[in-house]
Write a structure and sequence with these properties.
Blueprint: H1 4-16, H2 19-29, H3 40-45, E1 50-55, H4 63-72, E2 75-78, H5 84-87, H6 97-108, E3 112-120, H7 126-129, H8 133-150, E4 157-162, H9 185-196, E5 201-206, H10 215-230, E6 236-239, E7 242-243, H11 253-261, E8 266-274, H12 278-293, E9 298-303, H13 329-339, E10 367-368, E11 375-384, E12 388-397, E13 404-409, E14 415-420, E15 423-426, E16 432-436, E17 448-456, E18 465-470
Helix pairs in contact: 1-2, 2-12, 8-9, 11-12, 12-13
Bound molecules: ligand 9MR.
Length: about 475
């Protein structure tokens, strides 16, 4: 097992060589971590990060799709269902149904949600496209307020403003009806979002901001710097990261992420996809993951869809699973890179995490459920951060058993936000998770198996209580 310090050094060493060259170097030097995560979410959780995907409500009836999404990802973005045209098709009439389908699916499966997007020049409803001036400004702010209020408490981070800068060398704002309401429209949107949902992280999200040298990157950087200096409420910057041969992963990607993080915001990779195939695609994915892992405030990565056939640019086969749901080489390279570990994510807003806190209750008494066999569930603490902690449950078969299930109960306001090495289901309160084995649950007498999870503790460090039931 490597220590966080060893992992940190490895990250810095690799980072010093920049981008993709570093990815190759790290693979050669790195020794796989002992407790390797077997899914993307589990491997990312080892260093305190999430791994997410975009979900389309229309695909939630597809079992292959939901099986992969549930197993691999613990952060969900609605691909289209929470955009302005979907949320408020007619002025003053909100349609929450598709957004709710996705948010409810995510929460029922113990996942967090990135909200996308409150204000954008694109995918506006027709009534808004025809507006201008103060009338449009008012309508935009009202939309931000209504949508962020409706989802208050359910959103990890909102893309408050999306794609507000022009491409090319101008470094200017993008011309749009929103921009024409006045240059302060972006900060006005952020203030409205903060007032509506003070608990959500508020992000600015854009594309073609990956290369540190590009004018657009610099322009967004200067806006964020200015917002931080003037106290405009911004917590994070989203890098969409849509790459292809004409727009490859830049070798200075780590520099870009680190420079933004140094402004005092989190950075997140929000819509990752990379056109291509085979080892070339795999290597580029690896470079992106490595860049994020080497930046402490890069808190997570979201890929823009599940299978290639689900992608907005399916012909470029840009995702981690093929159309049949098989793992691609890119998947394996991402998983392996996540398992190399990275600079642990600190408490946001507090660059020097306080020492870890002990559990405030005694170790839960292991429960024994004789039934037809009998098993014991034992809790052990994992890594801790200021806002969350990891835990492991070890199931021990007291006699030979053919299967087991184990409940993990957390106390409000705690929430389980990631799991690994098992198939979880949830009760309606969201407090009780029942974990079952992903494959066969048969265990010989004395044999053990473990599953793990991340608890967002919201100030309550109490350990979960456990039961075990054998069959
Ligand atoms: O993937 C989305 C696709 O289904 C929509 O047709 C498209 C419409 O603009 O939006 C796509 O998602 C975009 C995201 O919302 C913002 N960044 C670029 C994404 C890809 O176009």
């Amino acid at each position: 097992m490597t220590t966080p310090r060893q992992r940190y050094r490895r990250g810095r060493l690799a980072a010093a060589f920049g981008g993709l060259a570093a990815a190759t170097l790290a693979v050669t030097l790195a020794v796989p971590a002992a407790a390797a995560g077997s899914t993307l979410q589990a491997a990312a959780a080892e260093s305190g990060r999430y791994f997410g995907t975009a979900i389309a409500a229309s695909r939630l009836n597809d079992g292959t799709y939901t099986t992969i999404a549930n197993r691999e990802f613990n952060m969900i973005t609605a691909e289209n269902e929470m955009k302005m045209d979907a949320m408020q098709p007619s002025r003053g009439q909100f349609n929450w149904s598709s957004g709710d389908r996705i948010v409810n699916w995510a929460r029922q499966n113990g996942k967090q949600v990135r909200g996308h997007a409150l204000a954008w020049h694109s995918q506006q409803p027709g009534w808004m496209q025809n507006m201008s001036g103060s009338q449009l400004r008012t309508a935009m702010l009202d939309h931000v307020t209504q949508v962020a209020s409706y989802y208050r408490g359910k959103i990890y981070a909102w893309d408050v403003v999306n794609e507000a800068f022009a491409d090319g060398s101008s470094g200017a704002r993008r011309d749009s009806n929103l921009q024409r309401t006045g240059n302060d429209w972006i900060e006005a949107a952020f203030r409205a979002a903060r007032a509506a949902d003070p608990g959500a992280k508020l992000c600015y999200n854009d594309y073609n901001t990956d290369n540190w040298q590009h004018a657009k990157t610099q322009a967004v950087y200067n806006m964020v710097k200015d917002f931080k200096a003037r106290g405009v409420p911004i917590d994070c910057v989203g890098f969409q990261a849509h790459f292809n041969s004409g727009n490859p992963v830049p070798s200075n990607y780590h520099t870009t992420l680190q420079n933004f993080a140094d402004l005092g915001v989190d950075v997140q990779i929000t819509e990752l996809d990379i056109e291509g195939s085979g080892s070339s695609q795999a290597q580029q994915y690896q470079g992106v993951v490595q860049a994020c892992l080497s930046v402490a405030r890069c808190t997570g990565i979201t890929v823009w869809g599940v299978r290639d056939t689900d992608s907005w640019r399916a012909s470029g086969t840009p995702l981690l699973f093929d159309g049949s749901g098989n793992k691609k080489a890119a998947y394996t390279s991402v998983l392996n890179q996540l398992n190399q570990g990275g600079t642990p994510v600190p408490n946001p807003g507090n660059p020097t995490p306080t020492p870890t806190q002990p559990g405030t209750t005694p170790t839960p008494t292991p429960t024994q459920n004789p039934g037809t066999g009998g098993c014991t569930a034992t809790y052990s603490e994992g890594q801790k951060w200021n806002d969350r902690f990891n835990g492991t449950v070890t199931i021990r078969a007291n006699t030979a058993i053919s299967g087991w299930s184990s409940t993990v109960t957390v106390r409000q306001p705690q929430r389980i936000i990631a799991t690994w090495n098992g198939s979880p289901t949830w009760d309606s309160s969201g407090n009780v998770m029942t974990m079952r084995p992903s494959g066969s649950g048969a265990l010989a007498a004395g044999q053990t198996v473990s599953f793990g999870f991340t608890v967002q503790h919201n100030g309550n460090w109490t350990w979960p209580t456990l039961t075990c039931s054998a069959s």
